[in-house]
Structure formats: C-alpha cells, structure tokens
Amino acid sequence: MRQDTRLSRLLHVLLHMAQTEAPMTSEQIAQMLGSNAVVVRRIMAGLRNAGYVAAERGHGGGWRLVRPTDQITLMDVYRSLDEPDLFAFGFSNPAPQCLVEQAVNATIETTVSEAAAALRQRFGQIRLSDIEQDVERRWQVLRDLRY
What we know:
single chain; mainly alpha; Arc Repressor Mutant, subunit A; two-stranded antiparallel sheet; 6 helices; 5% strand; WH-like_DNA-bd_sf; WH_DNA-bd_sf
C-alpha cells in the first residue's frame, strides 16, 4: 500500500521555514525533500491560497511563512492538501448481496468514519508551535548529551 507522505513532508518544510527569516525557494525545499520544484510549488499553492504562506518572486524571493506557528494547526495543513484519505480501507464489493459481507462493510465503514473524525478533531488541536516546542526539547536533550 502506497502511503501519502505529503502532510508530514509539508509540516517538515513549514517548521524549517519558521526557523528562518529568509524565504526558501522551491528548489531549496525540493532538495530538502528529495523532490522537484514543480511538486513543491503545487503543494505550497494550497497553503498560499489559505493565507499561511506567501511566494515572493525575483532575486531573493521564495516561500515565506506569513502566519505565526501558533495560528496554524495540523488540520489547516491537512485541508491545504485537499484532505486526502486518512485510511486506505476499501470493500471488495461495495454493494454485496451477502448479508455477512453487508455486515462486514457496515462495520468497517462505521469504524473508519469514527476514527477519521477523531483524527481530524485531534489535527485541529495540534499547532505547529506544539511541534516546534518538541523540536526544541529534542535539541536540548542533544545539547545536554554533548556537554
């Protein structure tokens, strides 16, 4: 099963952007992600349209975060990606005649729907600033180990 890594990759980029004053070019971001600049521009467009980043053209231009990290939730970023499927479960037959398969489908559908709702709710509670704090804690542990 192929995993959709766009959310984690985009969060990674946004947190790096938050750590610098300088704009990041699509090429720089693509190099960081092992991707290409066209893909980066496509993914960043959703964030731009939602007002979380801005693109500056010309020499010295690039992508810049325009909202503080405490004003951006994981749900905001997830929505900017057009809310991709959270789970890859499906039915071998979406309209079965078999009562057993109907019950199986209903159980899976209900359970996945409930899990997706809970995950979306949690995404709305987590801010980029929360992840920044975790990064800082990790840096502190690393610094403590070095000294």
